[in-house]
Every structure is written in C-alpha cells, then in structure tokens.
Amino acid sequence: MTTGEKEALFFDVEKSNDGINFSVVVSVNSYNDYTSEQNIYSFPDPERLNGRIYYRIKMRNQAGQSRYSRIIQLSVLPKVFSFASVTNPFNRELTFDISSDLAGRTDVRLIDQFGKTVKRKTLDIISGLNHLSLGDTEQLPSGVYIIRMQLAEIVIQKKVVKQPE
User: Fold this and answer.
1) How many structural domains compose the chain?
2) Does the pTM exceed 0.85?
C-alpha cells in the first residue's frame, strides 16, 4: 500500500532464503495515481512456503533513486514464542510484534552493549500476534542494544540499533 504517489514508481519484490542474499521475484509498476489516498498492491508468491523465507521491497523512481522496505520473515516452522517483526533501526520508540502460542506476562528488557538493562517493562501477551513497544527511547545514546523477552521459561532476544536523533 502506498499513499501520495507523486511520480511513477517501480516496486521490486525481493526474496531470500537467508535474509542476506536477495533476488527479484517480480517487478510491479505503480499506478502513478497521486489523486488516490491509498494505492494497494499485492503479489501472490506461487512457490509453496517451506521453512523460513524473507521478503523486502525495493522502491525505485525513474531518476534511479531507490529505497528498501524493512525485511519481513515468513515461516511455517512452529514457534511457541518469537519475534514476528522489529522496527530496526529505531529512534523515539522501539516497536515490535511477538507471535506466541502462550498467554501470560512477559518481562521485556533493553540491554546496552555493556550488559546493563536500560529499559524494562512487563507486558501482557495473548495467544497470537501481539503489537508491542518500548517508548521514551529518545534519551538513549545511539548504538547497538539487545531486546530480551522472557515468557515462562522461554527467552528470546534480538539485536537492535538506536539511530541518532
């Protein structure tokens, strides 16, 4: 979905098995409809999902400028408690989605490069997809952090980067 298309754009849907090496699976021309509030695009991947697959979109204009979307991961592997997506890098707020087969209270910690917990929050998790965030992160120095979550005996963590203001 796009909003405010002011010029002709091209969208390259890219796919990867490892989240690092991507190849274009389809290119889609934009509607170039600046009058529409939203333009909706879709692409059904004809290949059956096996294991874990990563996607991203490269948006290009006619002048050759481009930007990438965030990378998303799709998986058919069973996970009881896992990160579905994380806004990375982050700035004022760290937002993330958690997929869980369990419901309960989770301890969330943001840990700096020295192992010190700089943010801590307890959140309620429902079975399914949970949209969560850690706010007020603008005062943290830019750098690499670890977001760590624990639900019952399950611990997950992910490296995140704080961008400068």
Assistant:
1) 2
2) no
